[in-house]
Amino acid sequence: MTTAKASPKLPPSKLFINGQWVDASGGRTLPTVNPATEEVITQIAEASQEDVDRAVKAARAAFDSGKWSERKGRDRGKILWKIGELLRQRTDEVALLETLDNGKPIFESGKIDVPFCAECFQYYAGWAGKHSGDVNEVAGNFFNFTLREPVGVIGAIVPWNFPLLLTVWKVAPALAMGNTVVLKPSKETSLTALKLAEICQEAGLPDGVLNVVTGPGSTVGAALVKHPMVDKIAFTGDTSTGKEIMRSSAETLKRVTLELGGKSPNIVLDDADIEAAARGATTGIFYGKGEVCGAGSRLLVAEKAHDALMEQLLDRTKRFQPGDPLDPKTRLGALVNRDQLTKVSRYVEEGKQAGAALVAGGGRWASPGGKGFFFQPTIFDRVEPSYSIAREEIFGPVLSVISFKDLDDLVAKANQTIYGLAAGVWSRDIKKAMYVARKLRAGTVWINTYNMYDTGAPWGGFKQSGFGRELGPYALESYTEVKSVWVDMNM
Ligand code: NAD
After folding, report:
1. Quick one: 173 and 318 in the same domain?
2. Distance from residue 88's CA to the centre of ligand 1 (Å)
3. Which residues contact 264 (CB under 8 A, 6 or more apart)?
4. What percent of the chain shows pLDDT beyond 90?
5. Based on the structure, what is the number of domains in the chain?
6. How high is the pLDDT of residue 3?
């Protein structure tokens, strides 16, 4: 393992409030652990309720002062562009932190996550000042127009699976539209959020516009959600946490957007290009160690295509053996922590007991150093939709293969879930693929591809996968309020 040799440029083990690095008021800290070695990387500050209050007040004061919200959009855009530029220049530095903290392969953080973040800042830099409102036809001699104004103080709460990427999906459009932000990363993976604060300051973002408070969700996150000076919560995480957030934001009637869990079907019709489908099925579940909200964790296969697909799938799975996340060739890293390893192992046991056929993996992977929360790429065949491995989000490299007879059977099985985040359809017949795509209750459908994301394309869920859309012009809606202005034109 080369992990121990990596020497990251760590951000301060502090909170970032009003442009200052400060200790948590109670002086408390928490360790953050490298999941590939189980070693402590550094400490992060554990914010108190008082610290959250200070961060929110700083964001409120920055917003109310107008120094950001009333600045010309194109000037805000220049700073966002610069943040993107700095991120791009520091890709290696930021990607290393992300990999050490999360366990994802350096290939993913360096070639995909960080470049996507840079691009996202620059995409929204272009939108700043270009989402301003309409003139509306109204009766009588009146002039009516709408203004798009920032919502105010945004509480951004982010999970550990794409720590920086999911942060940027919120922070970039929020800042572009003139909001100020209090960011709460996951306590498992706070380092790149703190690094982002450093970069934003260097790019010239005024004090108080972005604040970062670290610590547990049950205290720090909950305090942010309850705080009366926060106008909106932008949340990505577990569906149960999303429900809790919705309940507690009701008290102050905050705007809420929720990007939650998934159990996405990846569907192979009998006329699919089997090689391409097998490739899409493996990357669909093993990319990001399966700790991906849109992971294609249910592979629905036409009976006729089953045997040919399974053969290729098992062959391709061999290429996804776990390895040192810092090795550029590694494609499957370490799960984020011991809890996640325990959870994934429990589901695998449930799958075996239910009667599914374990055809690949199924256990912890022993690294050469004997440490790390690695799990083998795992495939269950002959899974029934009623099994827990087919219904619940495992959030690990575990694929459930389910057969279907015809299109009606397929559509029923695909939609037999509380979730509705994403889906894939593999077919050479575009009409059939489109028919299925229309029938699926999911926020994203990929046809003859999987795991495609772009800053320009919206992302979000149907059903209990949440509501609201991130990315593209859609995100601009959730970071602005519409103000209708009337002018009496009668002489
Ligand atoms: P989580 O819900 O446990 O935590 C997410 C964030 O919320 C963390 O920062 C956490 O500290 C905070 N939090 C926890 N309890 C809170 C509370 N009561 N009040 C306020 N904040 C609280 O989720 P996780 O385990 O970090 O992430 C995995 C989950 O995220 C999975 O279910 C996954 O599907 C989901 N996810 C969804 C998307 C999407 O775009 N739909 C993307 C990535 C991850």
Report:
1. no
2. 27
3. 294, 295, 296, 297, 298, 419, 421, 422, 423, 424, 442
4. 98
5. 2
6. 46
